[in-house]
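Incident log, structure service

09:12 report received: a user says their structure output differs between two submissions of the same chain.
09:20 pulled the input from the user's history:
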Amino acid sequence: MLEAASFAFAKISFRAHMETGTDVNFSPATNLPPFLGRITTFRFTNTLRPTNGLRIDNTYIFDRLNQRGTGASVFNNHIARTKFNYQFTPRLSLRSILQYQATLVNPSLTSLPTTRRFTGDILLTYLVHPGAVLYVGYSDIVDNPDPRLLLSGTPPPPPHTRFLETGRQFFVKFSYLFRS
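09:34 re-ran on a clean worker, output below:
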């Protein structure tokens, strides 16, 4: 395991972490038993604070499982995430999270699907008074499904529209602390 971090500056910081070891492929390809593989995990995070009210967190996570002996790749998983937090006033804040995840697999070694997914979330928070908070938010999930997973007879999406909207929600929540 290797780890490095720097918090020397007030406006920027980073952390990197790498780890290797042995893990089990719990999702082997058809007709293969679960097997041990070599796992490599890498995480990098940096935080930017360009102004007093704005904080930007960027994260990259990479996981790779290779077959022991041959070194063949079982899967590679990539996650890139950016989170923006802006504090307008002590009572009003806005948070946005953008994330891209890609799982790239070797179908001869795993039954995991190849996936690509983009998500976006936004949340506005207003503190009415201590114990009472109003939340207004929006969440959006966009997938790039593996054509092999689509229902039989359904053609894969055209190349220019590979990302399909698979989930969307808008919500309003009011939280109140009742005291007796």
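09:41 both user submissions now match this output. Likely a transient worker issue. Closing.
09:42 reviewer note: The chain has no helices and nine strands. The two ends are 50 Å apart (CA to CA).
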